[in-house]
């Protein structure tokens, strides 16, 4: 019983996750100590034991870390192909669990391996991937070390100026963080670079500074390297005595390091063990043969069989050897390519992120002056301009509206390409939705003397579950395209079923016109961004060439297909097929805020006070002009801190808050206001992309959002709506 209890207790202790992790950490620490003492064989044993424990507990982070350490050890003992294999395993795990800091270290070791293989450009790619991860994690010590390795790689490529600049960056980070080992090594390598750039005096000063740090902190390997570098520098300077003295110091320290290195003896021990095992096996065979020596027939038979067996084994061994070589080469090539593909993916993701940030910044900066363009043009048109000025102002307003549409199209494509567009299915009436689209586009059609015909299959149900907004966008783009390229003609919109399976209907939508048509050459790439018929057509009919690209992106999201059939001079037919789920539930009622549609004169505006928080002087003027026209009084402040103090000191009805301002942002200012006033109406008057920032606006405590540049009618309705709701609340109270 005692034995069973003891065994059960031991098993539970061995399986305890905390104890397992402690054992893993202990072996990792021991492997590092053995590595620093040049005892690579024992370091390998500790890593193997740690890996076995980590796999037993299925600890992904530890498994990835151990494979990375094994890769580093294999690199040190010049087994580069094995190192690549281990590092690929580490990277695969670390990417899945988002262990970014250790992933950066694995990339950095990958770079060291490529340097050892003299594949310097692959090494630079690996170091770039490592730097990206270290910057994300604010791991400055690892970043400094990686920059140093990158600088040394440029040194190997004889690009000494680039090497100097990058090592200088490494040195700056190392000094700031007091990373003495990296600082010492960077100084030594910078000395080599300055020597190559023919500045031997500067090189000697840097090398001696690095030597001093290495000596004070007993950095043995760096100390050994510095002796050799300084010896070479004195030799180039013609001081052969000092050169010889430092060379002697280098040779003595090298001998000392070699005496500490046990890798060779460890390999001898391992080889001796394997040889002893084989010798024992051979002794057993010899003894058996001696027993059968007296029997000639048996001896002859054994001889024949032995020869046959040896021949077969030899052929089999040769075949296995060749196959193994082929397999190893193939595996090594695959691991290398896999590593290169991972790094390429990292670079592509970084480029995509950079592009998205660039577009976000540019579009915001464009929207701000557009607010001035559209606002001023509307104001001037309302102020009885001279007859000869009206057309110019209308052209200015058209240009502003066109540019805003263009910006919105670019943002839509960017979101589609970045996979940031989500499907939002809801119950709706398909027939009603298309009818509404036709009604909305009828004015544009009438301007071109076009009649729109809508045919909805009588056997097709009306209600479906799908993302009605995206279907609307597709139809608006296609019908708008037909209106643009058709004069004095007709457009037919047809919807019918082509397949039904359970509740899923595959519907075909057709948009046909008898306009100018599209040539076969242009049809081949018409769904690409900025693709248009020709310069002449573009000038005549307008457009940015982004509409069909957006349609194609939305079709992919909805898992549909789109086709085009056209002939020059005879018209064009776009038809697309998408799956929709049939439902008997009628269209959900929208709970959106209804805009004020009463008479503004019914509102008491005399005591209404509005605070405009805006740092742009032109925007201040436009907003104040609009409010004055609405018979509303406003105060203007140009920063967030003062705005909070003004709100504390005054009783405002509405706050119009800009987002990007000097000092604290509009977001932060609103959060501060909400700490002492939960009910105040605060509108975000902003040029940022609303869809991407909606959750941030809600968290900050904004009542609603008015995007810039805004339409004056919508702006007025929102303000009147807010004032009317406040009035109703106070009346009921």
TrEMBL record:
PROSITE patterns: HIS_KIN, RESPONSE_REGULATORY. It comes from the Bacteria. The keyword Transcription does not apply. This is histidine kinase. Gene3D superfamilies: 1.10.287.130, 3.40.50.2300, Histidine kinase-like ATPase, C-terminal domain, Tetratricopeptide repeat domain. InterPro entries: CheY-like_superfamily, HATPase_C_sf, HATPase_dom, His_kinase_dom, HisK_dim/P_dom, HisK_dim/P_sf, Sig_transdc_His_kin-like_C, Sig_transdc_resp-reg_receiver. It comes from Algibacter agarivorans. Residues 609-723 form the Response regulatory domain. It catalyses: ATP + protein L-histidine = ADP + protein N-phospho-L-histidine. The keyword ATP-binding applies. Its EC number is 2.7.13.3. The modification 4-aspartylphosphate is found at residue 658. Keywords: ATP-binding, Nucleotide-binding, Phosphoprotein. One of its GO terms (molecular function) is ATP binding. Residues 361-582 form the Histidine kinase domain. It is an enzyme of class 2 (transferase).
